[in-house]
Amino acid sequence: xxxxxxxxxxxxxxxxxxxxxxxxxxxxxxxxxxxxxxxxxxxxxxxxxxxxxxxxxxxxxxxxxxxxxxxxxxxxxxxxxxxxxxxxxxxxxxxxxxxxxxxxxxxxxxxxxxxxxxxxxxxxxxxxxxxxxxxxxxxxxxxxxxxxxxxxxxxxxxxxxxxxxxxxxxxxxxxxxxxxxxxxxxxxxxxxxxxxxxxxxxxxxxxxxxxxxxxxxxxxxxxxxxxxxxxxxxxxxxxxxxxxxxxxxxxxxxxxxxxxxxxxxxxxxxxxxxxxxxxxxxxxxxxxxxxxxxxxxxxxxxxxxxxxxxxxxxxxxxxxxxxx
Length: 324
Description:
Blueprint: H1 2-6, H2 8-15, H3 17-48, H4 55-75, H5 80-110, H6 115-137, E1 155-160, E2 163-168, H7 169-191, H8 193-203, H9 205-210, H10 215-240, H11 247-251, H12 254-261, H13 266-287, H14 299-310
Antiparallel strand pairs: 1-2
């Protein structure tokens, strides 16, 4: 038994390196998408100090909105690609309206309340979006309009290490687009005036207000950015499977990513996402048969629990010391 757990998986990795590369690639793609979801959590937490539990359902809601608009435009006679990109613009507009509504209806009235009140408010936002989404779009899975958005299909087979490694083209596109978006958002919030204002708000709301920074505007910008992140994530995950409310469970994989990387760190979201993505794929492929499978559904949370025990602030989080 000990041999099967501690030695045999590594023997398999050495004997079949092509399968190891295949598994690592699939883990990297999942990890980049997890990191993109986690980035939405990080942006809102940095700006308001509130953990946005609704980020997961925002991924689903934005994707359903895109598919819903596309179906409507197609019924009006628009061509496939034209309908898809019009739907994409309107879906982004819906996320902007959602950001403005959240700021006006939720954040502004509760700004003086304890963080736990704002956290519970994001639960309310979650169930409002679920209910509204089910009323408007129904509960049946929808097919993502990948071809209409010029996302590739098929696979690329590469001979390496004595075997064949198959790379799905949609996975390559997802990894590239998600990576570019992560880098773009990181540079935007690091190098621009809005980014400096965001960092000021993250350090102290009162200090930011004292130098003329509008919390309301910053919150709208950050929630809109998180909405765009959710939209891109919904497109990529939806292109790999169907668009349904089950995607919210996938989106919540960002929670262990945040525990690993730190709730306020963009680099932490990236590194944490890659660790979780690669770790769960390796665990499922090499150790899953020993435990009857299903490791991929819970391994991420076990890794997060271990980090909570030994480094609760995460790899890149700030260690907070309170003096009494």
